[in-house]
Amino acid sequence: MFDYFRADWKAVFRNDPAARNGFEVLTYAGLHAIVWHRFAHWLWKRNLKLAARIVSQSNRFMTGIEIHPGATIGKGFFIDHGMGVVIGETAEVGDNCLLYHGVTLGGVSLEKKKRHPTLGNNVVIGAGAKVLGAITLGDNVQVGANTVVLKDVPPNSVVVGTPGRVVVQDGRRVEQPPLSHGRDLDPEGEMIKCMLHKIENLEKRVHKMEEGDRDGTAPV
Questions:
Q1: Angle CA(78)–CA(125)–CA(119) in degrees, nearest 5?
Q2: How far apart are CA 203 and CA 209, in angstroms?
Q3: Span 110-133, pLDDT tens digits
Q4: Using an 8 Å Cβ cutoff, are 15 and 31 in contact?
Q5: What is the distance between the alpha carbons of residues 40 and 44, in angstroms, rounded to a whole number?
């Protein structure tokens, strides 16, 4: 346990240039969150589930960071700024990973099985990014801010966009398909168009029924 704490302590200075001394670092919510999570995880592994959940929820209340006690997190882990980070039960995080505020390592299934992401070593996930499902991000992956990752990502890659796409791999830029001028980038807009089309058809049908009532030829 002490080895993990020492690695987490060093990770703060390695990843945050604003960390000037140990007294300041002791106030960091990200450091508090991982220390309390390691205790909650220790309880969870010993089948003390309720106690683990109490520690976890207290941690969430104090830091604004929600880490399920079942999540497995390697050494040298750091959450910068921290607020709004959520890490699910079956998430697995490798060594020396860095998460910024608003990151979610979430699930997309209600089944009681592996449903959260697995992160390799030295993974960096930018502010507001969502990594969802039982997918794997390889070693040295970097995820851009507000990216939504839904598929496996190979090692040594940079991922951006919604949905996330690999733009750099092994130091080389990855060629992207031609832009579709936004046709495939707004699923909500397409749903709204579909609803408006249905509403228009319904209005036409109601209008015809009203005309039929006036003419005495309304359908029975």
A1: 80
A2: 10
A3: 888 999 999 999 999 999 999 999
A4: no
A5: 6
SS3 159: strand
CA distance 60 to 63: 5
Matching residue, tokens 């036409």: 204
| Cβ-Cβ contacts under 8 Å for 91 (sequence gap 6 or more) | 68, 71, 72, 105, 116, 117, 118, 119
How far is it, in rounded angstroms, from Cα 139 to Cα 95?
Answer: 9
pTM of the model: 0.75
Residue holding tokens 């106030």?
27
Q: What pLDDT digit, counting tens, does each position of 185-200 carry? A: 556 666 777 788 888 8
Give 57-86 as a 3 state SS string: HHHHHHHCCEECCCCEECCCCEEECCCCCE
Question: What b/e string do you get for 28-51 counting C-beta neighbours within 10 Å, with b at 16 or more?
Answer: bbbbbbbbbbbbbbebbeeeeeee
- 8-state DSSP, 174: P
